[in-house]
Amino acid sequence: MTTDIARGQGRDGSGAESLLAEADTPPETRETSGAQMSLIAHLEELRSRLFCCVLAVAVGTVLAFIFYEPILQFLLNPLPSQANALATHNGKPQIAVTGIGEGFAVVLKLSLAVGIALATPVWLYQLWGFLAPALTRREQRYALPFTLVGAALFLAGLAVGFLTLRYPLDWLLRFGAPYFVEIITADNYFTFVAYFLLAFALTFELPLVLTFLAVVGVVSAQQLRKNRAAILVGLWIASCFVTPGADPYSPLIVGVAFTVLYFLSEGLIRFYDRTHS
To answer: Which residue, 200, 183, 202, is CA-closest to 83?
Structure first.
């Protein structure tokens, strides 16, 4: 009987200890502990979310292909008028193609790039949804702001990239002009434009990335404030290498954009810390 009583007391003690341990556990930790998923479940969710992203990109690509003519005319605007390969036909700018099917292939690739841009809210939301099981319920509430801010920053990056595009194009076309004849093909030009604009758009997601890292506890506003000078110097140095031309305007525009994005990141992180202190 003594042994049974001791066992009962041991069970009661361990139960009390487990209750006390659970009580000491932060609510955020308890909320996520039940949301554990197996590897197979993660892979199935990844497949479904990738399917949604691919479907959204496909829809955007079809829409861009339907309206490819105004898109082409709009993207030809930054090309300097003195470019040797630029010609006009019935008032519309044209550039050369070197193969029978090159024009169609260029339109397909350009439509795919525009489709990725149009599907930005979808793949940002799917990205957040895939990461959500590892977050607390409080952090999961930021799915909609994450998507809206990310889409706005992506569009802002496209706009700044388009405004900057004419400067590296002008410098690259003028370089060696007395010795070279520039033959600008459609594939070369629109591939350059697509990569340039998408690079700017992804770069403008810097505040979103830093804010997400602050939400999950990787960085803090104090760390960014302490290392502000070194980070800004690094961003300005990077702005001299991310632009393809050697003109003075492109690095200046990119450097100013990086600075604004960095201070925007600090502001968003301070706002998050203030509302959750």
So the answer is: 183
State if pTM tops 0.85.
no
d(CA 31, CA 134): 10
Q: Cβ of 188: how many Cβ atoms within 10 Å?
A: 15
> What's the mean pLDDT in 62-69?
93
Q: Using CB atoms within 10 A of its CB, is residue 63 exposed (0-12), middle (13-18) or buried (19+)? A: middle
The amino acid occupying position 46 is L
What is the residue extent of each domain of the chain? Answer: 36-154+179-201, 205-277
What six digits make up the tokens of 74? 């709009």
The letter for the amino acid at 206 is: L
Closest C-alpha to 90, from 103, 73, 113: 73
Give residue-wise pLDDT tens across range 178-228.
777 777 788 888 888 888 888 888 888 888 888 878 877 788 888 888 888
3-state helix, strand, coil in the chain (%, to 5): 75, 5, 20
